[in-house]
Each structure stands twice: as C-alpha cells, then as structure tokens.
Amino acid sequence: MISGYSLKNLNIAPGLVLAPMSGVTARPFRQLIKELNPNSVGLVVTEFISVEALTRKVPKSILMMKFTEMERPFGIQIFGYDISRMTEAALMAQDTGADIVDINSGCPAPKVVRKGGGCNLMREPEHFRKLLTAMRQVVRTPLTVKIRSGWDENTKNALEIAKIVEGEGADALAIHGRARTQMYRGDADWNLVGEVANAIKIPVLGSGDVTDRASADKRFRLGISGLMIGRGALQNPFVFNDILSGSRTEISKNPELALSILSRYRDLLLEDFSPNGAIGKLKQLASQMCRGLQWRREFCMAGSLEEMETIIMKTRESLQQNSALLAA
What we know:
2 domains; 15 helices; alpha/beta; eight-stranded parallel beta barrel; TIM Barrel
C-alpha cells in the first residue's frame, strides 16, 4: 500500500506526483493523466513558469497557471533568481487558488541556469537561503522545492540544500537523483535521495527512473514520502494506476488503446492550443507512448491534425478488419 503525506492542512494521497515537465505538463496533459488514473495521482504540477515573464504579465505565462477543479491538489512551479520577482510571482500563483507553490531549483537547461535560475541556485546556498526566507514570509500556501543531487558528480550538495530548505520553513522537498551535468543520462542516485530523506523531518520526494510497482516499492523502502514521475508518464500514461495496482499496461500490445488516448488528448489540447500547437504535443506523446507500433512513425511525420485523424481512422479500420478475420 502506497500512503501519502501532508503539507500543512493539505493531504497528498497517494504519494504519487505528476512531475513538472517543461513543454509537457500543461493543463491538457495534466487532465489526461488524471482521467486515465482515477484516484491514483496525489498531485499534479504545472510546467515551470518564468518569474520574469509572469511578473511582466506575459499572456502566455499567465495562461500556464490555468487549471480546473478536477486537477486538485494542484501546484504551480516557478523559476528565477531575483528575490523580489520570485516573491511577486509566488503571490500571483497563490492568488490563482493553487494548492501549492513550488520553486524550481533543479532545472539543468543552459538557458535557465545562465540567468541564475534552476539548478544554479544550488551553487549559491546563501542567496537561496535569502530567497526562501523572503518567500516564506509572504506565501501562505504550502511552499515546496525541487532540486537535483547537485551541480556535478564532485559537488553533490543536496543534503546541505535540504537543510536550508527545511530550516527556512518550506513544507516539502523533491530531489531528482541526477546532477545537473548528467541532464537525464545515466542512473539516478537514489542512495543520496534516501540519505536526505532520513536526515530531515519534512517530506522528501524522489524522482528518476520510476516506471512500475517494483521500481516504486524499491524507492519507498529508502524512507521517502512520495515519488515524482515525469518521463514515465509519457511512456505509459497509466503508470500511476499501474503502480498502485501492481499491474502493467502494455500499450505497444494494445494499439486501439493508444489511438483512443491520442484522440482524447487532441480534444483536450484544442481547448487551450491552436491546431499547430496541438500537433507538436500530440507528436511528443506519440513518440514516447507508441514505441513498437507500426504507425508511430507515420503519425509523428504528419503535418496537420487532419492527416493525424486520417491515420487514426485508417489504423482503426485495419485493426477491425484483422479482428474480423481472426474471429472468422
């Protein structure tokens, strides 16, 4: 049984979180995951939002905070370096009615760390301390932080940062077990995640390489309070339900299921995005979820939603014909 954890008066149960992913966890994807995993996702979080853009009222950034009631508990993740802009953005996020404000201190992208945000904050512990102090003073909702194991293999300072996070009153900490220089290569250092979890009293969540019940159970035995799952949800959108039930959804063996998911995702995307915007996100999901399916390449090469729909219809007709032949 996978239990949950509490942040102030907010209960996150089960302790399975859809990790914030840049360019992925917009409202349509979050809603898709919630629909496919009823009662199996404890928390969903936005993709990270720049405080520079947010505090300048850039419409696209304001839209990124949009959510629906069915997504709750719901968190908004922000990133930046400037303390005044971070606090202002945190208040904007809080004013939307979000349940959690999350600070991204783990993003490895060069365009983010060059400006002082993301994982670069781990290289400036004293600045980070001041930032957390200022934000804790103004944010009433649960305030959480996401970090990495460190900047590189020689400077894994997650424990030092974790004690700062706890000391400045943050309510939970999530750790991706890779260093910034690893990006998403190699294995996540779960021993370090477990060490941190047992060294501080606030809930610690781990992230990296969790794809099924076996890998989830192995991580929970380290003493963590929850798991953040990102890329695993792109590869298998049923991963949260599979972890709780102990089953395994083999999408590559169920093409009709994959087609249904893509059709539903298209409808959700068109509520928030233009047709051109929806195309890219459909390809993003199909490229990960549909590995092993014959029509995956054709779908990912499509140039329009109409072409994608034609591929879906043709594939369904072919599946029905094959089914009829087998029945005969």
